[in-house]
Amino acid sequence: MTKRNFSSLSKKLDYRFKNPSLLEEALRHSSFVNEQQGKNLADNERLEFLGDAVLNLAVGHLLMKHYPALNEGSLSRMRSNLVNETKLGDIARALNIGGLIQLGKGEMNSNGFEKQSILADTFEALTAAIYLDAGYDKAFSIIEQLFKTQLDTLDDPWALSDYKSRLQEIIQLKQIPMPVYEIIREFGPDHDKTFVVKLKVNDIIAEGIGKNKKTAEQDAAQKAVEMLSPPQPR
Question: Span 132-142, mean pLDDT?
Answer without folding.
Answer: 97
